[in-house]
Amino acid sequence: MVHENMSLKDVYYEVVSIRRVISPNSGFWRQMIEYEKEKTGQTTVKLLPGTKTTIPDVYLTKCKAVRDLNNLKTKYSYLNFQSNL
Predict the structure, then answer these.
(1) Which residues form a coiled coil (predicted)?
(2) pLDDT by residue (tens digit) across 41-65?
């Protein structure tokens, strides 16, 4: 994050584009958010209250992307669409 001069949000999207199954726990997110805040004075990821635990807001974008992909797969199923999501 620091060496590449990337935000926490950008780093998450970069890693998830390579390995889609990552899902760091809320403790890890808290530490990384605090670290980003110490280094840059701001944070690019926010924790949202969940039913049992907090979730990072970047998970919402990931969920939307998966939902959109599934909609495309359904719409164009006759093309035998393949994905590694």
Answers:
(1) none
(2) 999 999 988 767 888 888 877 655 5
pLDDT tens, position by position, 76-85: 666 555 555 4
Sequence-distant (6+) residues with CB within 8 A of 67 are none
Alpha helices in the chain (DSSP H): 8-18, 26-40, 58-75
- DSSP, collapsed to helix, strand or coil, labels residue 35 as helix
In this structure, what DSSP letter does residue 53 have?
S
Residue 40 is encoded by which pair of tokens? Answer: 């840059």
Ordered structural domains, the chain, with CATH: 8-79 (3.90.190.10)
Phi then psi dihedrals of residue 24, to 5 deg: -60, 145
